[in-house]
Amino acid sequence: MRWSLRDVVLCLLPCVTPACTGSTRSSAPQPDPDTVLVRVVDRANQPLPRAVVWTLPGEALNKRLWVPDEALPYLGNPHELLRRLGTRQLADAQGTVRVPRDSAMAGEHEGLAGVFEGGETVAGNGALVLDDWRWTVCVEDREGKPVVGVPIGCTPEDGTPHEERGGGLPLGLTDAKGCLVVKAPGSLHVTRYARGSSAAPDPPPLEFVVFEVEGMYLPDHGQKLSLKEGESGRVTLTLPPVVRVEVRVPDWNGPISDIVSLTSPKGLWRDDAQCWNEMGRHFALVRAEAKYPVPVVAWFGEYMMRTSARVPNLAPGETFPIQMELDEADIVVRARLQDELGNPASHCALLLSVASQQRRTIFVHADRDGRVATVLYAKTTKDDELTFRVIASPNTKLIGAKVTWSVKGLQPGKHRDVGALTLRR
Prior knowledge:
The protein is mostly beta strands. Helices cover 5% and strands 38% of the residues. It has helices at residues 5-12, 58-62, 78-85; strands spanning 35-41, 52-57, 87-90, 96-100, 103-109, 112-116, 127-129, 134-140, 151-156, 169-173, 179-183, 208-213, 223-226, 233-238, 242-248, 260-263, 273-274, 276-278, 281-287, 294-300, 305-311, 319-323, 331-338, 349-354, 363-365, 371-376, 384-392, 402-407, 416-422.
């Protein structure tokens, strides 16, 4: 299962149109018009007092390019994204909660869970519905021991042979017991990944979803569960022989954040493996071959830099490092981005434009504090003009905001921190 991150994000874009919400006149004090009151209920429509609810702007959940590195393994799992990145609230004693209008929501209450992704209001008679529908995916090694911290993905079973599958939804990493529990499976857009027979006119309905450990060149080891609504299930995957690879990326006064991945030297996109982030370190799994090393190409950023390597067969528990380096004459430019009120532009995804066109970095991700780093070629003119434009953000008011500034006196191999820059629309 090996789609690029950008392909996954584009495939997840919903085909929905926001619905308008009306207001009624009342002599009572009016609540904030930019919020709505939502009921949290079970399948029997019974209220769930004190349910936990997490929210994000619906547009932010739809346009996920801003999602930080550490959450990328959960990119296709709306419940986990909302739980990890959303604003947390508690429903009141009547099971109601007031949330920003057009929010995406996830909720939990005593073993129940559910998701509402936005696009139309749930105010009035609508509700966030929680139930006990679960998919549990566990991973074991060949000795039956649990495998912790490996990425799980899924695709619909549509008749496509394993070797031709292009990829699927990243669901998350296995926990300390070697398992991943997928809550609210109905929120997963599994059918958008249908290929093969389901691409034909009047395809048969999809019945099963297939789970695999995400990695490079991994043989078929998938197991399936029913796609029937409300039908929970559990599968156990046996991890094929693999080597854990760490791609070590360059930094300067902090990390240079960008997508880290492994690809085939032949450029076959279906062999790509997205790295996951553990405490700032980037890892991927590669099929282990006893007789010869496995050739891979490590990429840092989609257009920035790459390093070829041959991955040997290592003992279990060992990690093969691939070190990536800046060219000696590259120029790192760091900045701290903020909005017009001085708040950090946290987790924004930005497009970089450079007057000289001498950029190695094209897409930039701000960290929690709004810090960014971009890499310019040594051919950059002594003075250059750079522009950052926000293309995705958890703060949707920042989308489209930009900042342009001049950097004076650039020199090959001499990095620069330009300090705070303010984004304006």
